[in-house]
Backbone:
């Protein structure tokens, strides 16, 4: 079984989902970020503590998927990577996971250095697995 944890900015959720669907059609098991509403990034629960617990849970959920996956794929469309993806790349690197990306650039040389291979299509990514 080939498993991929995809990391991406929420602003590319539609493009990421389409990429993931194509990857699944090719036989991969895909863990996508949890971008489901009604929890926008500005969400505020009845207390700051509960808000932190909710977002910590979402972060740790994705870390768990990265840990379980064979590889970590960075969907860095337009060479963009934000704070959450930076943390996910560091986590994947600490676990000695291969890090593949849509582009070799992330907007920052230290992050760029963590990318092992580039795959611009689901077909290219499947070949790397």
Residues:
């Amino acid at each position: 079984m080939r498993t991929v944890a995809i990391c991406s900015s929420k602003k590319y959720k539609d493009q990421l989902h389409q990429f993931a669907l194509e990857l699944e059609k090719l036989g991969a098991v895909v863990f996508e970020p949890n971008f489901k509403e009604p929890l926008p990034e500005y969400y505020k629960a009845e207390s700051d503590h509960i808000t932190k617990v909710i977002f910590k849970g979402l972060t740790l959920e994705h870390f768990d998927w990265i840990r379980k996956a064979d590889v970590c794929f960075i969907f860095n469309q337009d060479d963009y990577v934000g704070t959450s993806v930076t943390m996910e790349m560091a986590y994947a690197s600490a676990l000695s996971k291969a890090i593949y990306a849509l582009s070799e650039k992330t907007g920052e040389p230290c992050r760029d250095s963590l990318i092992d291979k580039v795959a611009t299509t689901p077909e290219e990514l499947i070949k790397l697995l």
